[in-house]
Specification:
Helix content: 10-25%
Mean pLDDT: 78
Number of helices: 3
Oligomer: single chain
Low-confidence stretches: 20-24, 70-124
Shape: elongated
Distance between the termini: 41 Å
Largest sheet: 8 strands, antiparallel, barrel
Structural class: mainly beta
Strand content: 35-45%
């Protein structure tokens, strides 16, 4: 079947459906002797989505699926009746393609090798969409609800330069019409850049101490870095009913979404670094645990509108082991890419 004819019929059906003021919510387009396309709509506001939908790309993906099924049937010398069904509900990606055969009962999942599978998304509970998220923000910590710089502590940090970075593989599973669960695994990095550039971190049997480096050099930077393997579980309410959130570079999503859930991390490395000038630029690194807690856990808040998502992480346990360092609860906030 000519793809241009198919595209013309589909666009014609969408326009006719948009103009019609009939009670029927279904349009059927007959294609050939045994094939047809069915458009079903529950919310007439979705007509705007249909008018701007990329039908050509959608049906290229559907035809790839159908052609794979036909190849199997021809190999078995079986006759195949193929119906292509397209449905839409109040979400842009709520489309599904199905193929049926009276003699082919193969359900071994040929779509697993289909690189177009992400474009043709089947609607239903339990469906999961995978993405790769990148968090970029700043971090700080509080002591009894106060920032350390209010007491001029040496471990006070500069918000600008104390970067929080995380990279995670996130799975988004639909649990309800507007309810999703985002769960993932990744890595994160705390970078605490101290207010003073000559802060040294010293460790002994008693605990960790922050002292001033008294060398006669030009100090440029002093910081503490810790890296973690992270896991998160965040329930999301998405008022746009999208199986995946819009990316910043896409920008089609006008919905609001919010989620709050737990996370846990395990420390895999930490070091201090002090940078200074003495016969050129020098860096002193000390790889040590500094009595940092091996496990950090807390709550994560995500808020999104259109194509922008923000996060706030707050550690419920202290950064250092109890009694071995200052009682600090770290937090971070920023943008999700």
């Amino acid at each position: 079947m000519n793809k241009k004819i198919l595209l013309t019929l589909l666009l014609g059906a969408a326009v006719t459906f948009g103009k019609a003021q009939q009670k029927s919510d279904t349009v059927i387009v007959e294609l050939g002797k045994t094939s047809r396309v069915i458009f079903t709509i529950k919310d007439r506001n979705d007509l705007d989505i249909l008018k701007h939908y990329d039908f050509q790309q959608l049906f290229q993906d559907i035809l790839v699926k159908i052609e794979k099924s036909d190849t199997t049937s021809l190999a078995n010398n079986d006759s195949t009746n193929t119906n292509a069904v397209a449905t839409t509900e109040p979400a842009q990606e709520n489309w599904s393609s199905t193929s049926s055969s009276s003699s082919d009962n193969n359900t071994d999942g040929d779509d697993d090798d289909d690189d177009h599978n992400w474009r043709v998304h089947e609607r239903g509970w339990g469906r999961t969409w995978q993405s790769f998220n990148f968090d970029l923000g700043t971090n700080n910590y509080v002591h009894n609800g106060r920032f350390p710089d209010s007491d001029n502590e040496l471990y006070s940090v500069r918000p600008w330069g104390s970067w929080y970075v995380a990279a995670s593989s996130i799975q988004r599973t639909r649990l309800g019409r507007k309810f999703f669960m985002e769960w993932g695994l990744g890595m994160s990095w705390y970078n605490f850049k101290f207010q003073q550039d000559n802060v040294l971190i010293q460790k002994d049997d008693i605990g960790v101490h922050f002292v001033e480096d008294t060398r006669d050099v030009e100090f440029k930077k002093s910081k503490l870095t810790a890296s973690y393997i992270m896991a998160s579980l965040v329930p999301i309410i998405d008022f746009g009913d999208h199986s995946r959130k819009s990316r910043i570079w896409e920008g089609y999503d006008n919905s609001f979404r919010i989620g709050l859930g737990p996370y846990v991390g395990y420390r895999i490395g930490s070091h201090s670094k002090i940078v200074y000038k003495e016969d050129g630029k020098q860096k002193d690194k000390d790889h040590d645990s500094f009595y940092l807690n091996n496990v950090r856990y807390g709550a994560r808040l995500q808020i999104g509108y259109r194509a922008t998502d923000l996060f706030i992480n707050y550690d419920l346990n202290e950064l250092f082991t109890a009694g071995k360092g200052p009682a600090l609860n770290a937090f971070s906030f920023g943008v999700i890419f």
